[in-house]
Design brief:
binds magnesium ion; 3-stranded antiparallel sheet; binds manganese (II) ion; EC 2.7.7.7; DNA replication; 5-stranded mixed sheet; DNA polymerase; 15 helices; transferase; binds 2'-deoxycytidine-5'-triphosphate; single chain; DNA polymerase, domain 1; globular; DNA-directed DNA polymerase activity; alpha+beta
């Protein structure tokens, strides 16, 4: 366990409340500070150990000082004991309910609990009604070992009933080594598939069909050619889990693997670095931005790349995650170090 887990947990509770209230800049500020404290490695006994870390401002130093001095943070106690804040957090954890709808349900309709929502489900859009159906189960974290069991099961079923050459891996917080995850993020490819042909996109549809037939997938939120979102269950004694699946052709597998492994904050950092070197990076690939010199050295301090919306250029093919780090000028780090 991290030597500063009490500080990390306390600040995480506040960060999560800002996210559910729809205040992303506060959420990001807390996440940055939490990541800096998490990677410190030594136990904080005095705020001088963190006051000069990047991403930790005076307000954050004051909060850590209060935790060190009193063993707790009054702001956290207020957040955790406020029924309105807690209700908004419960509601936004349900698929299909964002901060705006959650606040309306709490303030205008005086709802507080999942049972309240069930009694007033006519107020919800259809997606949220489906989310509500599994809300009590999906509020539970998925243990690391259970996700490994899902992977073993998926590999076996897909190899037997679809194609033995299909390659399946779990990404998201699980690949970053999380002891528990919020959902299960599965990435699938096939060595003979290519982004030129496109015909292989039928694979995901076939896989979803098979997984529904065997009773693993029990409900669908959204299904497209390369993305699936829904609910699955390994066996009836286990809770229903949120399942995200993505299909990517083999030649663009690594940008997808990198994106889907995250974290979301790490992806933002990496996209900014890519732009500074004249590349645009997204979940579908790495592209040279036309009309921009592709730097093979660090750009001048303060130099900016082309705007984020610049036209996509030639796709750059890569055969590993490390090749992408190299091209955008970042030192390769393993998934557990990609929390920032
Ligand atoms: N992702 C992203 N930006 C987003 C959402 C997702 O870059 N707005 C990427 C990075 C995430 C990955 O997709 O790590 C999977 O998304 P999840 O929402 O499943 O997030 P995690 O798996 O990281 O965390 P959790 O345990 O909450 O599922
Ligand atoms: Mg996830
Ligand atoms: Mn997910």
């Amino acid at each position: 366990m991290n030597p500063n887990h009490r500080i990390i947990d306390t600040l995480t509770h506040i960060a999560d409340s800002y996210r559910s209230q729809g205040v992303p800049y506060k959420y990001k500020a807390y996440r940055t500070a939490i990541d800096a404290i998490r990677s410190l490695g030594t136990q904080i006994t005095d705020v001088s150990q963190i006051s000069s870390l990047p991403g930790i401002g005076k307000a954050m130093v004051d909060k850590v000082r209060e935790i060190l001095a009193t063993g707790a943070l009054q702001q956290e106690k207020d957040v955790m004991s406020d029924p309105i804040t807690q209700a908004i957090q419960t509601f936004t954890s349900i698929h299909g309910i964002g901060p705006v709808l959650a606040k309306k349900l709490v303030h205008e309709n005086a709802l507080r609990t999942i049972d309240d929502l069930e009694a007033s489900s006519h107020l919800l859009p259809p997606q949220a009604r489906l989310g509500l159906k599994y809300a009590k189960d999906t509020a539970l974290r998925v243990p690391y070992d259970e996700i490994e069991d899902h992977l073993t099961y998926l590999k076996k079923v897909v190899a037997k009933l679809v194609d033995p050459m299909l390659q399946i891996c779990v990404c998201g917080s699980h690949r970053r080594g999380g002891a528990t995850s919020g959902d299960i993020d599965v990435l699938i490819t096939h060595p003979s598939s290519s982004s030129d042909s496109g015909s292989e996109y039928v694979f995901l549809h076939v896989i979803v069909g098979v997984l529904r037939d065997v009773g693993y997938i029990i409900d669908v939120l959204a299904e497209g050619t390369s993305k699936f979102m829904g609910y699955s269950r390994l066996n009836p004694s286990l809770p229903v889990r949120r399942l995200d699946m993505r299909w990517m052709p083999y030649d663009v597998f690594f940008p997808a693997l990198l994106y889907f492994t995250g974290s979301d904050m790490f992806n933002i950092t990496m996209r900014v670095e890519a732009l500074r070197r004249g590349y645009s990076l997204n979940e579908y690939g790495l592209y040279e931005i036309p009309g921009y010199e592709h730097l093979h050295h660090a750009p001048a301090k303060g130099a900016e790349g082309p705007p984020a919306g610049a036209a996509k250029g030639k796709r750059v093919f890569v055969d590993s995650e490390k090749a992408i780090f190299d091209l955008v000028g970042m030192t390769y780090v393993q998934p557990p170090q990609r929390s920032k």
